Amino acid sequence: MAKEIPDLVVEARAGTGKGAARQARREGKVPGIVYGDGKEPQPIQVEFNSLLTKLRAGRFLSTLWNLKVEGQEDVRVVCRGVQRDVVKDLPTHIDFMRLHRDTRVNLFIHVTFENHEESPGLKRGGTLVVVRPEVELVVTASDIPDHITVDLTGKQIGDTIHINDIVLPNGVKPTIDRNFVIANIAAPSGLRSDDNAEAAEGAEA
């Protein structure tokens, strides 16, 4: 299932240079530029409050956006830089790069867990501890997965799920080479307490 690409509405900006940028800021906009994909750079401006909300939500620079400019075709972009005021730490300029459909890009993809009822460890009262609810993956701009799936069937207490245990879609790979942990099945607190007590008794003996 393809990942839904969020819209980012911007306006075409008339003029370039410091004067035009200052004018945009006076109007409550953040000036920016869209470049790449063999096309001419396009000056744009983004509504300040809308941009600030998206920046504070996180993952802005690792999200693929559907850039919408009135009167023009939508284009897929990623943010390649946000300049900020050194005192207020608020955005003053933003750069976007256009992506071709075949472009490979790093994005954070959500991890979902299925077949909880088929896990003996969870049936015994174990707890699913999610270490990485999202995983940064290298994907193709035209075919971004909505999520990756972890099958909990047969998972016992103490089992650990690594990235190599997950079947990734074709052409998708992690940005990290090592076999990192996604989640584990932890023992219920009562069972852990019993184990600790047995260990202590064994030490005393």
Automatic annotation (TrEMBL):
Kindly state one GO CC term assigned in the UniProt record: cytosolic large ribosomal subunit
Q: For this entry, list what GO says about its biological process.
A: translation
- Extract the Gene3D superfamilies matched here: Ribosomal protein L25, beta domain, Ribosomal Protein L25, Chain P
Keyword field: Ribonucleoprotein, Ribosomal protein, RNA-binding, rRNA-binding
InterPro entries cross-referenced by the UniProt entry: Rbsml_bL25/Gln-tRNA_synth_N, Ribosomal_bL25/Gln-tRNA_synth, Ribosomal_bL25_b-dom, Ribosomal_bL25_C, Ribosomal_bL25_long, Ribosomal_L25_dom, Ribosomal_uL5_bac-type
Large ribosomal subunit protein bL25 beta domain: from which residue to which, for each copy? 105-188
Q: Name one GO molecular function term.
A: structural constituent of ribosome
Which residues does the UniProt record annotate as the domain Large ribosomal subunit protein bL25 L25? 8-96
| Function recorded in the entry | This is one of the proteins that binds to the 5S RNA in the ribosome where it forms part of the central protuberance.
Q: Which family does it belong to?
A: Belongs to the bacterial ribosomal protein bL25 family. CTC subfamily.
- Oligomer and partners: Part of the 50S ribosomal subunit; part of the 5S rRNA/L5/L18/L25 subcomplex. Contacts the 5S rRNA. Binds to the 5S rRNA independently of L5 and L18.
Database matches in PANTHER family: RIBOSOMAL PROTEIN L25/GLN-TRNA SYNTHETASE, ANTI-CODON-BINDING DOMAIN-CONTAINING PROTEIN, RIBOSOMAL PROTEIN L25_GLN-TRNA SYNTHETASE, ANTI-CODON-BINDING DOMAIN-CONTAINING PROTEIN
Q: Which NCBIfam families does the entry mention?
A: bL25_bact_ctc (TIGR00731), PRK05618.1-2 (NF004128)
What name has this protein been given in UniProt?
Answer: Large ribosomal subunit protein bL25
Which source organism? Paracoccus litorisediminis
